[in-house]
Amino acid sequence: MDVGRIYFKILIVVVTLYKTNGYSNIPGEETCETLQSEINLLKEEFDELGRLHRSCSGEIAVNKCEGSCNSQVQPSVITATGFLKDCYCCRESYLKERIITLTHCYNPDGIRLTEGDMETMDVKLREPIECKCSKCGDFSR
Question: What is the annotated signal peptide range for this record (predicted)?
Fold first, then answer.
């Protein structure tokens, strides 16, 4: 037996013991969910010369994805690294576009704009409507 084979067999035994001692990811431990969060959104507008035209802000309630997903790494004789990685991340499965109206708008001197179409600003925002565990690096959606 060569050293490489001995190392591989020992590694399999260690992984098997690790799993039998209750340390493996048990199905159902995933906690990926869609949660409400509040952010302070600031949007600035500039003129053709790059000078600040106005800035608008607001406290906005938005959805976010948060939680953990089951992933595993196991020895493999097929892969170049010697390990087969099965990684899952908590991320959006569906995004929805939403229009947010910012109501606190100021000119470059910091004076609040209270008249006309300059007192508010509409901003398009895409936020998660549904979150789930997805294969890491899978950006096909």
Answer: 1-22
